[in-house]
Amino acid sequence: MIEDVLITPLDIIKTSGGKVMHAMKKSHSGYMGFGEAYFSQVAEGTVRAWKRHKNMTLNLVVPLGKIKFVLFDNRGEAKAQFQEIVLSESNYVRLTIPPGIWFGFQGLAIGKSMLLNIANVEHDPHEVENKGIEYIEFNWGD
């Protein structure tokens, strides 16, 4: 497990008309303030990698579909390490990624998956680094 990365179990409440799926409460440990929230669709097999934020803390939830996240930490003097986690309704958790961690993700569900990010700051193109998939060696074929 990468230091400062949080995995927070979330509640799903079944009701007669469907489900209520919690995402974030102000009292949760991953809450660092509110800047923006957005949804992103991820098509089956699509890989989006690599990205690293300088200031933004991401809080990622997958209410529909299935997405594999790969984190790569090469901060400081510690040995570089990977962490993988699959988010879905059957593993309904929130993944909190602090600034300074490289990450990418891949759609695993048939069709499209839905990703929610609740970020502590608004998007700023000068605050994020983007690199191509070849930047960090990882086998996405698993």
Explain the overall architecture:
It is built from no helices and 12 strands. The protein has a single domain, classed as Sandwich (Jelly Rolls). With 142 residues, it is mostly beta strands. The protein is globular, with a radius of gyration of 15 Å. The protein has strands spanning 6-9, 12-15, 18-21, 36-43, 47-53, 58-64, 66-73, 81-88, 93-97, 102-107, 112-119, 128-130.
Rg, alpha carbons:
15 Å
The ordered H/E elements are: EEEEEEEEEEEE
Strand order of the largest sheet: 1-9-6-11-4
CATH top level is Mainly Beta
Number of strands: 12
Shape: globular
Q: Could you say what the CATH topology is called?
A: Jelly Rolls
Helix count, DSSP H or I runs of 4 or more residues: 0
Per CATH, the superfamily is Jelly Rolls
Descriptive keywords:
142 residues, mainly beta, Jelly Rolls, 5-stranded antiparallel β-sheet
What's the helix and strand layout?
Layout: E1 6-9, E2 12-15, E3 18-21, E4 36-43, E5 47-53, E6 58-64, E7 66-73, E8 81-88, E9 93-97, E10 102-107, E11 112-119, E12 128-130
Antiparallel strand pairs: 1-9, 2-3, 4-11, 5-10, 5-12, 6-9, 6-11, 7-8, 7-10
